Amino acid sequence: MLKSSTRYSNGHSFKDHYQERKLLISRSIIAFAVVVVMLCALLIRSWHLQVVKYEDYQTRSNDNRISIQPLPPKRGLIYDRNGILLAENRSIYSLEIIPEQVDDLEATLTRLLSTGLIEEKHKKKFLKDLRGQRRFKSIAIKSRLSEQEVARFSVDRFKFPGVRIEARLVRFYPFGAELVHALGYVGRINDRELGQIDQANYKATRHIGKVGLEKFYEDQLHGTIGFRRVEIDVQGRVIGKPLFEKPPVPGRNLRLSLDIRLQKVAAAAMGVDRGSVVAIDPRNGEVLALVSNPGYDPNEFVTGISTANFKKLMNSEDRPLFNRALRGLYSPGSTIKPHIGWIGLEKGLITPQSTVADPGYWVIPNEEERVYRDWNRRGHGLKVDLNMAIIESCDPYFYDLAYRMGIDTLSKNMLDFGFGQYTGIDMGEEVPGIMPSRQWKRDTRKIPWFPGETVITGIGQGYWIATPLQLANAIGQLGIGGTRYQLNLVNEYQVENEWVKVIPEPSEKQADFSNAANLSVVQRAMRRVTQFPRGTAKTAFKDSQYQSAGKTGTVQLVTQAEEKYDANKVAKRLRDNAVYVGYAPYDKPEIAVAIVVENAGHGGSEAAPIARQLLDEYFNNKKSDRMAAKMASEEKF
Amino acid sequence: MALIDYDNSDRRGKSLPQQLHLDLPLLAGLLVLIGFGLIVLYSASGESQAQLNRQVVRLAIAFVAMIFLAWIPPRVYQKWTPFIFAAGVLLLVAVIFVGDKGKGAQRWLEFGVIRFQPSEIMKLAVPMMLAWYFSERALPPNVKELLVAAVLIAVPTLLIMIQPDLGTSILIASSGVFVIFLAGISWRWIGSLAALALIYAPIHWFFVMQDYQKQRVFTYLDPEKDPLGSGYHIIQSQIAIGSGGLRGKGWLEGTQSQLEFLPERNTDFIFAVLGEEFGFLGIVMLLAVYLAIIGRGFFIAVKAQDTFTRLLAGAITLTFFVYVFVNIGMVTGVLPVVGLPLPLVSYGGTSMVTLMASFGILMGIQTHKKLLPG
């Protein structure tokens, strides 16, 4: 550094430092003189505007009459698949005051009090809000007026200049808690969201989609702002009719694949239990019902939930705000046995005839000390084949198969059923779960895979976790023996007056079902789960009017290896999760369901009956819809 | 530490501003300006405490940048100037390929959580580069050196113009041109360049300018032609300023601002709020503060010890003046509308950090002086 500066001062012999310094300083002085002159020019301009033409501009300021008022667009409506309104906009009236337009604020308030429209507390709150408010803006003195109050004020309105009734459209969810986890909700725009939105388009908007569909489809639902030019006086009072109006463009209406009748049955069947019910159409990925229990009332969030109520929801042990269908991660348990069996057949590891001995437990060959128990202590006999292993949910059969298959083959092929991946549902909040593999464990846990972990993966336990949506998707795929689609709730959206259909998209990874024989072995076994005397879901599906197939799961939350599990002794929160997955009709599946009931016990006795109710409702509706359509068409002729 | 700070190892007897290498007169001018600016912003934002808080946070960050640059001796960045310039140009090229589109223009680069505009770096790097280039050569510059200087200005200017960001490219080009002027380009050259510009202007008008740009010029020439459309901004801001009169309507009392007739009143048009609420006297006060800051900048340039710092200090000061002049000129209707904020008063703007950093450089030039023999 020193060297270089030496070069500057001595390097160029022709550099005349004195002259150069003089030149540069004179240039700086010239520049400063120009600055002074130009600043003076600005001053002269201001003098001209503010002093010479002051009266002119003052008049124009007083005459300034054209105000631009933004007009909020109507938020798009949401319908179910049969056109039932699930999210609508309702008018809410509030009494508002623009303080600058009121001559005597105190007198006006006193007169309002005497009419009985407002109470002392409203006045107090208003006087508090008054401070720190933008000028010429109206301030609400009482919100949510009843129809009668609106009518009463309208009669007397001429007595109250500067006071007015403001009508606003506010979101309303008629089905409340039953539907909240499928729809989400809107709420007041907060500071963070303000930074992310197009503020010009939201100038008149107060609410924005916060979670769920409402958030995911915000761009479609919101619409485009309009505005009108009105004449106002210097106090901001509007005079006469608008001079110009560009009406707002309402947001797009959405029609969901969801069937509210199924949704209601599913929510009712869950009762007070924690868990999730999901129904999809496996042929196209349409979501027919999506319940996460318990729910909460979204309408409270629209108008602003009280801190006490919000705390109650936040701190509830049942976690009502948690969307279990999208984000609840459960061990799939025995529900994936049909899939593993199918992979075993495809890979030639088993045949429909090959058997495994089940004395009630299983050990890794040559490692006698570690014992893996069957859920049935007595076992399922010494010759259990695949068919029986699925019907009776025999654990050792799948311990053996998974052990021989190896975790990498198992994991890789299960990806083809969508495990460990997003279902692609149009909600934006789902989690992909975990389909464990050697690589996954190395990457995340930094420890190697143990053979014992492969064994329990064979019955859907261990690291393997999945969402109810994934379970429904996977069983539906096996049921139709074809393409698995990305799930979607929105079926159609309205552009002007046309309904545009959303085209379902296949998921990225797909299983290859070209061997029809292998597929039908596991499908038939799943049907027998609901029909055979020893089928685990036989009781639940007794006398059903349709043929369905499925698989139960009873997922342990405490280890069963050493002690005998006693449901009565284990704390309620550690009791087994009851799981059921299934589809119907057996030969041409139209609906696939997944039910998880937390800490309920057996899948066959606690989850399968919910599936039964759901499928009964589905086929009853189908029948009555057909009848209604028939009657309608007969009436025409 | 020892590498760059060897000349102030003796800290005894030094006050905190001296230790921090702050220039007190300049600091005082900036603080008065910022204080006045916050008062106007509070009114312009519709008494929004939240906007005020965010502005204060931004100012605090900008102050840290200023203190940091004041602390670095100028010869350090003098040495690094060519590399900073080259890196800046590379980042500008990178923006074209991988930049983020914000509001239709491709200006942002993303590094993890940090997003920044490389053009901000160039606001400092261009005058630094030209000052560096001339400091190594005899002045006044000859033709060849002027051509090199023109290329050094043209490359970053064009790269920013195609983003497109006209306001910034004008600022950057003028900061470079100022260095050439301060370096003593002969008046004959200045005259012939001006003549050339006059000849070129019509060509530019008919063959280069886009329709929307021409529209801006028409609006500037006659805003009353389309009073509710393109002329609305400029008419409303002139009404606001004019109706302020000598003494103004009073703080928070401006009807033009508070009734929202005045668009963008907290950002580019904040000067009109000041004019309406504080009147001509308020404008005189604001311009006096700006003049004081600019005067101190030239004082630092004149007192600077070598060519590099002298040219740099002068160019930084003049660029700051361009901000002031273009913004106020636009709001009062003597210049067409160009989106530049009123420096250190307008709400937001990524330019605040760069501006304060350039004041840090000015302070550093003033406070890191070597005791020269003789």
From TrEMBL, chain A:
Annotated Penicillin-binding protein dimerisation domain residues: 71-240
A Gene Ontology biological process term: proteolysis
Ranges where the Penicillin-binding protein transpeptidase domain occurs: 275-615
Cofactor binding comment, as recorded: Binds one Zn(2+) ion per subunit.
Domain of life of the source: Bacteria
Pfam families: PBP_dimer, Transpeptidase
Function: Catalyzes cross-linking of the peptidoglycan cell wall.
Name of the protein in question: Peptidoglycan D,D-transpeptidase MrdA
UniProtKB/TrEMBL annotation, chain B:
CC terms in the record's Gene Ontology section: cell division site; plasma membrane
EC supergroup of this enzyme: transferase
Chief subcellular location: membrane
Key words, A-Z: Cell inner membrane, Cell membrane, Cell shape, Cell wall biogenesis/degradation, Glycosyltransferase, Membrane, Peptidoglycan synthesis, Transferase, Transmembrane, Transmembrane helix
Localization (cell): Cell inner membrane; Membrane
Chain segments annotated as transmembrane: 24-44, 56-74, 80-99, 146-162, 168-185, 190-208, 278-299, 311-338, 344-365
Domain of life where this protein originates: Bacteria
InterPro entries for this protein: Cell_cycle_FtsW-rel_CS, FtsW/RodA, RodA/MrdB
Membrane topology: Multi-pass membrane protein
Reactions catalysed, as given in the entry: [GlcNAc-(1->4)-Mur2Ac(oyl-L-Ala-gamma-D-Glu-L-Lys-D-Ala-D-Ala)](n)-di-trans,octa-cis-undecaprenyl diphosphate + beta-D-GlcNAc-(1->4)-Mur2Ac(oyl-L-Ala-gamma-D-Glu-L-Lys-D-Ala-D-Ala)-di-trans,octa-cis-undecaprenyl diphosphate = [GlcNAc-(1->4)-Mur2Ac(oyl-L-Ala-gamma-D-Glu-L-Lys-D-Ala-D-Ala)](n+1)-di-trans,octa-cis-undecaprenyl diphosphate + di-trans,octa-cis-undecaprenyl diphosphate + H(+)
Pathway: Cell wall biogenesis; peptidoglycan biosynthesis
EC number: 2.4.99.28
Biological process, per Gene Ontology: cell division; cell wall organization; peptidoglycan biosynthetic process; regulation of cell shape
Pfam annotation, one family: FTSW_RODA_SPOVE
One function term, GO molecular function aspect: lipid-linked peptidoglycan transporter activity
Its biological purpose: Peptidoglycan polymerase that is essential for cell wall elongation.
Family named by the database record: Belongs to the SEDS family. MrdB/RodA subfamily.
HAMAP family: PGT_RodA (MF_02079)
Protein name: Peptidoglycan glycosyltransferase MrdB
